[in-house]
Prior knowledge:
Elements: E1 5-7, E2 10-12, H1 19-35, H2 46-56, H3 62-66, H4 68-71, H5 80-104, H6 114-120, H7 122-130, H8 147-156, H9 165-186, H10 193-202, H11 205-208, H12 217-232, H13 236-247, H14 253-273, E3 277-278, H15 287-301, H16 303-313, H17 334-353, H18 361-370, H19 388-406, E4 409-410, H20 412-426, H21 435-448, H22 454-475, H23 492-503, E5 510-511, E6 524-525
Parallel strand pairs: 3-4, 5-6
Antiparallel strand pairs: 1-2
Helix pairs in contact: 1-2, 1-7, 1-8, 5-22, 9-10, 9-12, 9-21, 10-21, 12-13, 13-15, 14-20, 19-21, 20-21
Amino acid sequence: MAVHRSFGKITTSVSHLPTWFFIIGYPLFWLQLYTHTAVQGVTWPLAWILFALMSLRETLFIDQAITFKRWLPSRWSPAMTERFFWSAGFGIALCIIGIGAMASLKPLHLLQEFDCLQYHYTLPRQHLILGSFAHIPWAADDLFLLPIEFALAPFWFATVLPNKIPQFIIFLGLIGVAMRLTSALAGERRPWAGPLAALVILGTHGFGIQMGTGMLDLITAYLFLASLDSLRLGNWFLAGVEFNFFFWSKPLMPAEVVITIGVLALLFALVRRNHWQIGETFALKHWRRALGFFLILSMFVAGPFMAKSIYYAGTPFFPLAPGMIGPAQIKTHPQAWGSLQEASHIWMEGTKNNYGHGRAWLSFIKYWWLLAVPEKGVNNAFDYPLGLTYLLFIGPFFFFLAKDGLQRKFSPLGVLAALGWILWWFTSQQSRFLYVPLLLVFIVTISRLEKISRVLFLCLLISLGLEAISLWDAHRGDVGKWGINDLRGQDKPLVELNQRYLQHPSSDYVDWPSHDVAYAQFPVVVHKESLPHTILF
């Protein structure tokens, strides 16, 4: 059995420890915002102290470590080749984790951290400095749903140079809950399924690109899988928290989730009516309690952001349809309103068409391969290549899905992965938005494998090796560099200006030419329009 700790009705496991980042961080952010105790952009260490106290109760993945033997066949006496595969696989995996851990200790500076510097970190810090939740008038993205950013901000800004350590810890939690879900579906007969899932995730290039960085897409994937695992265990409290921050993580996420779950529910009702067998699932315990808690918690997690977006932009989910509700305060400034509408158009239309190779039949046929490999340098038309593991498992996944259909069997998780993939095809074809469907593909497929063939394990070792080489190549230039020496050239003047500004405190805004001011410890104003992020005001 997995190790659990109980706190009254709150039960946690070590794989769900990252959820406490959100439970602790979100209320602390609002407390510091309105008590004006972070006006220099640095938060209390209290968030990390509380998280450390929770972590002291159990070590990350201790439930997996304690029960590792039950993942292996009880009479398993592996041949030399099998021992080599497992030893080599976990050896390379530890190297990958080590490189990711090193990268997570560096400040924000990587090319793929553009969005972090642009708004994920910049906006919460500016709000703390200003001591106000009011719209930052030059930032169109300040009208987004930002609950994840607000929850993690007390951890990010506990250091003068913002850190990205929570993202790495949450990634470890993602591996943990994926292992648990895979093992639960596979059952005692395939106890190697959990460790195999860990190796597959670590060998996936699409995940490795974000491991150790400040990006938030792996966090949303963790929150979704963690909410499933919490419901499986009957923990309605954690499930409500996890699904809440997942559901409200992006402006269009609520619509996408509602559409996906609605279609899944309709299909489920149809197959039940036609007496199909329901396969490869687990009971979701206390889901009604979790749903009730989700609705109550949403008023605090999403409510402030929706109210702000309605007041300023006339829409609860900017950039969707500004001006659709109410007068919209920004409308009183025609120049700013025009700039905001143009930003909305770029996000809604431009992003949809900026990735992939179109949606024609020929593009559909080609993209299954092109999604996996680089086309221009290390990237491709879908942004990040997913890598070899995607190619290894997508075929067997569709084989199992088709086999289920022919046998009148309905696999909810498999169908959910397929629906998410279809929705992705018709919206933004950025590979990072495939993280949740891809993880479900891995979990469902691995749980149904009868054995691990030598060919599969050899391909997995190759994928792990390529990923380790790729990660080292991406981060080796940062070896030996720490702090300000590892910053981008345009960020160093901000840090230097911090010293002068803090020595002579002032309430004046500093006019800065660009939007990405995550390192500023003073209030900033940006007058230069740079759509879609920076608007006129």
